[in-house]
């Protein structure tokens, strides 16, 4: 038996045999052609066939997975139509006399080198798109038909599963997958989570350790892999899997019930989404609303900014699907680690502290107004609310509200209907805003606490930096004190407050937030029912002394141990 570790990117436990898939690049011949025009004709036919295949995959993904995941292949199609990619290939064939495969390889490698040198994870991920499209073109040019996975259920092991490979997997036959490359934000990881397939990536030299037929256990939460496990390990994971399934069945019984404590305190549970396709999953998991619609995903994977009508169609559809439940749309939060391929952000030493989110929008008021108009128009079709990100001064909030009022006046003058009582809120994610939350509470209808950034900015920790990541903790006493202050100031001014960061779904923190009086918790859809179960076990009156104890402790470690000791185990809730 061998224990191997990687990065868990898609939850679940799977046990089964391994099937290795050879996803290496086709061997490429470098040859000069006699008639370049005929070679370009061959390239043209390959481009047509590649386009046909990608359209087929797009439709298949749209039907089986969702609109957001299908957009990956729409982006691949745009590469085939991009003159900056196709033009150099044509030039190498017609002017240099290179064979098509050689030309594709040369242009591919140049683009990959450019993207991978960029100090930005989103742009680095574009190299995966180029590699995927080029690999498909090369296989078509060489007449290679990719061997499809078939047969008994198995765990797929590969050097690199491209987005197309992952999207075309037959879910019923695939127990999980392990690949040598990739990360949490890779396209393949996103699709694996959408399909519910356990996945572990970033496993160095895995193809040298595993062969087809080996028995495997993979834990997509922890990133653990057991190769040819001993019986003791097999039994342990069988028990874990059974317990997990029983737990999920128990949570399913809570659909249709309220998230109310035993002594009657009600907390709304909402979903965080980034794509329209995720609304369905939110409803399946009993979400009472959309607590955070991250609109930046509408701007990514495109060649230009989305139009007002394009955005309106998405916001309108989300509002209509939610059938009167609230949909909180966060205005564009771009910059930091989220760049756009068609907009050049300034080079910054500290992009998270720079030109991003509301700062970008208040400078590019033309783009901001376009989004505001789309959101306001969509408010006529459901219960839409709007909130502004990364506010740190009253001046910023007033400027954003002024532009919102201008957009309303324009639409009214044009005779376009919208909800007159549109609620306006703001993200509480900077210490500057938290400290004067009493002032902000007089200017908005609600707060939404974004714990991801609040923790990062309060503790001055870049969580992506391995040297200091251990200092990033939602149990930090300064962070918890700010959250408590925000909630108190909101309620003193008769506005409601939610939490929409990752901390909202941490079991140990949920009872603490509820005891503080938070009105809404918003999280990934899959965490909603478990959170509902936790809330239903609580008695707020019993927790007042615990809150006092938290206030007295000095370190995140002490607070974490205290809260986990009281709340994380299922047994502690059972009577």
Structure description:
This protein has 575 residues and is of the alpha/beta class. The chain has three domains: 106 residues, Phosphohistidine domain (Glucose Oxidase, domain 1); 106 residues, PtsI, HPr-binding domain (Enzyme I, Chain A, domain 2); 274 residues, TIM Barrel (Alpha-Beta Barrel). 47% of the residues lie in helices and 14% in strands. It contains 22 helices and 16 strands. It has an eight-stranded mixed beta sheet with strand order 1-8-7-3-4-5-6-2. Helix 1 packs antiparallel against helix 2, helix 2 packs across helix 5 and helix 4 runs antiparallel to helix 5. The relative contact order is 0.09.
Task: Give short descriptive properties of this protein.
8-stranded parallel barrel, TIM Barrel, 575 residues, alpha/beta, disordered C terminus, Enzyme I, Chain A, domain 2, 3 domains, 8-stranded mixed beta sheet, globular, Glucose Oxidase, domain 1
CATH class division of the largest domain: Alpha Beta
Low-confidence stretches: 569-575
Helix content: 40-55%
Task: Estimate nothing, just give the exact number of structural domains.
Answer: 3
- Report the β-strand fraction as a percent range: 5-15%
**Sheet having the most strands:** 8 strands, mixed
Query: Count of DSSP E strands?
Result: 16
Indicate the structural class: alpha/beta
Number of helices: 22
Q: Indicate the overall shape.
A: globular
Would you summarize the structure shown here?
This protein is α/β, with parallel strands linked by helices.
Please write out the topology.
Layout: E1 2-5, E2 7-10, E3 13-21, H1 36-64, H2 67-80, H3 83-94, H4 100-117, H5 121-141, E4 154-158, H6 163-167, E5 174-179, H7 187-195, E6 199-201, H8 206-209, E7 215-219, E8 224-227, H9 231-252, E9 268-273, H10 278-284, E10 290-294, H11 308-322, E11 326-330, H12 357-363, H13 365-378, E12 383-388, H14 394-413, E13 423-428, H15 431-435, H16 437-440, E14 446-449, H17 451-459, H18 477-492, E15 496-499, H19 510-516, E16 520-523, H20 528-536, H21 544-552, H22 556-567
Parallel strand pairs: 3-4, 4-5, 5-6, 9-10, 9-16, 10-11, 11-12, 12-13, 13-14, 14-15, 15-16
Antiparallel strand pairs: 1-8, 2-6, 3-7, 7-8
Helix pairs in contact: 1-2, 1-5, 2-5, 3-4, 4-5, 11-13, 13-14
